[in-house]
Amino acid sequence: MDYKDYYKSLGVKRDATQDEIKRAYRKLARKYHPDISKEASAAERFKEINEANEVLKDPKKRKAYDRLGSNWQSGEEFRPPPDWGGDTDFGAGGFSGSGAGAFSDFFESLFGQARGGGVGRGRSFSMRGEDQQAKVLIGIEDAYHGSTQTLTLQKPQMGQGGQVHMREQRLDVKIPKGIRPGQRIRLAGQGSPGHGEAPAGDLYLEVAFRPHPYYRVEGSDLYVDLPVAPWEAALGAKVKIPTPDGMVTLTIPADSKQGSKLRLKGRGLPAQEKGDLYAVLTIVLPSAKTKEEKSLYEQMAQEMAFNPRAHLGV
């Protein structure tokens, strides 16, 4: 009796996660199913990967199989250890077979005779379609108010003979209010088509924001650079500032400094806890091109006791 390397059959490492095993199995099952594949060895390969999946998808069987160690090679002569199995009933409830047909002598010597037979070429094969991932760019206003966008996507579709091809599809996608970059929108049934009568997978859209001419996003907060004149920063002023809800009036405190942040509470992205909008002050200096403009700067230099380098000790 030959030893079967189930990890090699699925093309996964011995420390593979259950999700990695599931993905590997689905990929190979689609490739080698006898109803789809034209390869001469497809039926035998399909049986091999289903047997491997039957063991590795079940934590109890996988743990028992791993006890054999990693030094065995596929095809080597094998006999189960004398104490194999113990009191563990691997066969309780039968095996699914996953459309595999009869299992090998190696499998049956370890886990018992599979019951209920399997699915051969004459029976249908069903498997849920794989989930798909895509990115969607939205505006900050879309996240602030919520919106519906029409997207054009390339969607996989099952054609004749079981071949998958891409076709263009337009989808109306609801953008929920308060969504943030990195979050995902699930579109049920819009992923890869299923095999047989199984349903299609889902499509997950990862949200990213388009660059905005005014705002920067940090979590649920918005930041906007607010230019102010020197006298507005020095004397204080009331100025208009844009928000996603429209213009509001902001009070600039007297003696404000470059880079000061003024908070407008609750004006950021809507969420369970609303974000804030921060106006970051940028002091803009007037030009000194005309004679009159230069005269004003000369007057300031003479009358104001101001040393911008005092902190340097000069």
Describe, in plain words, how this protein is organized in 3D.
The chain has 314 residues and is α+β, with helices and mostly antiparallel strands. It folds into three domains: 106 residues, Helix Hairpins; 78 residues, Urease metallochaperone UreE, N-terminal domain (HSP40/DNAj peptide-binding domain, Sandwich); 89 residues, HSP40/DNAj peptide-binding domain (Sandwich), CATH 2.60.260. It is built from eight helices and eleven strands. A four-stranded mixed beta sheet has the order 6-7-11-10. Strands 1-5-4 form a three-stranded mixed beta sheet. The chain is elongated. About 7% of the residues have low confidence.
Question: What distinguishing features does this structure have?
Answer:
alpha+beta, four-stranded mixed beta sheet, 3 domains, 24% helix, HSP40/DNAj peptide-binding domain, Helix Hairpins, 314 residues, elongated
CATH homologous superfamily heading of the largest domain? DnaJ domain
- Given as residue ranges, the uncertain stretches (5+ residues, pLDDT < 50) are 91-101, 113-124
Number of helices: 8
CATH topology of the largest domain: Helix Hairpins
The class by helix and strand makeup works out as alpha+beta
Largest sheet: 4 strands, mixed
What is the CATH class designation of the largest domain? Mainly Alpha
Question: Domains counted in the coordinates: how many?
Answer: 3
What is the helix fraction of residues, given as a range? 10-25%
